[in-house]
Write a structure and sequence with these properties.
heterodimer, A: alpha+beta, Glutaredoxin, about 45% helix, globular, B: alpha+beta, Heat Shock Protein 90, six-stranded mixed β-sheet, 6 strands
Chain lengths: ~120, ~180
């Protein structure tokens, strides 16, 4: 059972970790479209897959956030990946199954998954 | 939308856009009355009576990228399909409450679906905001209040991975015994 005592223990452990990771200049941002169009197209499981996978791999330099409708509803769920110093990459029709590859190839190894990008979907 | 919990996620986005700091989501199931009601209440900037009139119109939106706003009309349709209704109360500077009522046993009532996924997604994406989730099934109820968790967590953010995992598990373990039919 998840108890309040357990939450207190998590807090104490998290405080130790927080002291280690100060300075977020190399922070990678993953932005999920969460407007009506995104949600209807399946953004919620995509978001949760990103967060779970990022947590599982302890990618402390990755922040997952949301945005509204960016006007390309036909490509939702849309996920934008911003790596500092690199051009923004926009992925379209993202599914939870595609998340692991985006994380491994792009977030960890720095090479975007060309076939999942909106640019590729428009061809 | 295939699940009512997705409508809830969508409607809560309006509250976030309205600058709410506390969003309360209630899901109440009453088998005797054959009724399911879902409310999303916020303390955001609220709407004037004129804006409130327009919100019912799918061709009204505060957004600038497109000219339509489907969130409220879709939620209304989901409720009306079951013989239910949707009502919005709002006051400038006070906040907005969206209330949808469904006929619980109606064949066209969409399932509530993964409400736990909706609540965790909201907390994850908006760790600076507070959420209350209250689910009641025939009088038995469970409440999660992030303000209470914050008291325990202190400076540790709600979206810290281990904290989120705890919240997910806590929701699952406490919602299961309610035996929701929704």
């Amino acid at each position: 059972m998840k108890t309040i005592a357990e939450l207190q223990a998590i807090r104490d452990k998290a405080r130790e970790k927080m002291a280690v990771r100060e300075g977020d200049s190399d922070n990678i941002r993953v932005i999920v479209g969460m407007a009506t169009c995104g949600i209807a197209a399946g953004a919620r499981p995509v978001l949760n897959a990103f967060v779970d996978e990022v947590a599982k791999r302890h990618l402390n330099n990755v922040t997952v956030t949301q945005t509204g409708c960016i006007g390309m509803c036909q490509f939702e769920p849309i996920v934008e990946v911003l790596v500092p110093g690199k051009e923004k990459v926009t992925y379209g029709k993202v599914t939870p199954e595609k998340v692991a590859k985006i994380i491994t190839d792009h977030l960890v190894n720095g090479s975007p998954v060309a076939e999942y990008t909106v640019g590729n979907l428009m061809k | 939308m295939r699940e009512l919990s997705l409508n809830v996620l969508d409607i809560a986005q309006n509250s976030i856009a309205a600058g709410a700091t506390l969003i309360t989501i209630r899901v109440t199931e009453e088998s005797a009355a054959d009724r399911l009601s879902i409310t999303v209440e916020d303390n955001g900037r609220g709407m004037s009576p004129e804006q409130l009139q327009k919100v019912r119109d799918p061709f009204y939106t505060t957004r600038t990228t497109r000219k339509v706003g489907m969130g409220i009309p879709l939620f209304r349709m989901a409720a009306e399909m079951t013989g239910g209704s949707l009502d919005i109360r709002s006051e400038l500077g006070q906040g907005t409450t969206v209330m949808a009522v469904f006929t619980l046993s109606h064949i066209d009532r969409m399932p509530l679906g993964d409400i736990q996924g909706t609540v965790t997604a909201l907390i994850r994406l908006n760790p600076q905001l507070d959420f209350r989730y209250i689910q009641t099934v025939d009088g038995a109820s469970f409440e999660l209040d992030t303000r209470k968790l914050r008291e325990i967590l202190g400076d540790v953010p709600l979206n810290q991975p281990d904290v989120m995992e705890w919240i997910g598990g806590y929701l699952r373990e406490n919602l299961e015994p309610l035996r929701s039919q929704a």
